[in-house]
Design goal:
Length: 309
């Protein structure tokens, strides 16, 4: 059995050496056959240079060097596209997900004959309350809106077997939300609970802006319910307008004195209906933008060069 360890890297010079050391120690103790695939996602620091030194000393270290920064999900996709192992391990280079639990995850996969074992975070060290709160809200909101149920409190840290890898590689859509796609595939998937550590070094590569973009991909690629919400808002606004019109007629007929001319009610109605229209247009725009990305059919990533492949 060959393990393919997929490690996306973006400006991780402070941690990449320790990541390599801990991965090597795990697999050498367990005596696994393995390949370490590091995907350099357009790093601007010394990450690539350090990886090249490692690859010269250790032929199990393989490098996919992107022509520019394409993003974390594209880096994971490239790793899955190029790995040759029977099982792929997806793990970030920041060491928040401890490599030492991989043997236990493998044991669970073999014991239960599972196709996927995904990590579930019991505890998350070194993260702000805001990130913890928004992540919790996002996963639960996505489950409410999506047609497919996703496990909560998970990331991309997981083991997938060759059957799942082949199915994933057959998917041609762009802007992949990988943890969602793997859940969507089905097969036998089991959770593995662990405590997530703080970053070993460096800074997070997912600031608020990237988190929001990632959330949008997950939401609009896996659910049509926002369109249904927009439609419902449209019906609600029309109904409200008709009720308001009816109230005006009743007031005129029975001289109730509530039709005194004024700008307040007019402004409220304009703001309400304008907001509904803008919200609906925005939701439609997101879906149209996704269709535009798919229609262009550009590659998800471009590889500048490969090492040890």
């Amino acid at each position: 059995m060959l393990l393919s360890v997929i490690v996306p890297c973006y400006n991780e010079e402070a941690v990449i050496g320790e990541t390599y050391r801990r991965l090597k120690s795990v697999f050498e103790i367990e005596q696994f056959s393995y390949e370490l695939i590091f995907i350099n996602d357009g790093s601007t620091d010394k990450t690539l240079a350090l990886l090249k030194v490692l690859s010269e000393e250790d032929k199990t270290v393989k490098i996919l060097n992107f022509s520019r920064n394409f993003g974390h999900q594209c880096a994971v996709t490239a790793g899955l596209n190029h790995c040759i192992g029977d099982i792929a391990v997806i793990i970030d280079s920041d060491l928040q997900d401890p490599p030492e639990v991989i043997p236990n995850m493998l044991n669970l996969m073999h014991t239960e004959q599972a196709d996927v074992v995904y990590g579930v975070r019991k505890k998350r060290e070194g993260e702000s309350w805001f990130k913890l709160f928004t992540a919790k809200i996002f996963y639960r909101l996505l489950n409410k809106l999506s047609d497919v149920k996703f496990p909560v409190d998970t990331g991309d840290f997981r083991l997938v077997n060759r059957k799942v890898i082949n199915q994933f590689n057959s998917l041609e859509e762009k802007n992949k939300y990988i943890r969602g796609l793997i859940s969507w595939m089905g097969f036998k998937q089991l959770p593995f609970y662990y405590e997530r550590e703080a970053r070993f070094a460096g800074e997070t590569k997912y600031p608020l802006k990237k988190m929001l973009k990632f959330a949008m991909i997950g939401l609009f690629y896996f659910s049509k319910k926002p369109l249904n919400i927009a439609t419902s808002l449209g019906f609600f606004s029309v109904l409200l307008g008709l009720l308001y019109l009816l109230w005006i007629f009743i007031s005129l007929i029975f001289s109730l004195g509530h039709t005194v001319s004024g700008w307040t009610s007019t402004v409220v109605i304009i703001v309400f209906f304008g907001g509904v229209q803008l919200l609906t247009i925005g939701i439609l725009g997101k879906y149209i933008g996704n269709l535009f990305d798919e229609a262009k059919n550009r590659p998800e990533y471009i590889i500048d060069n490969k090492v040890n492949f």
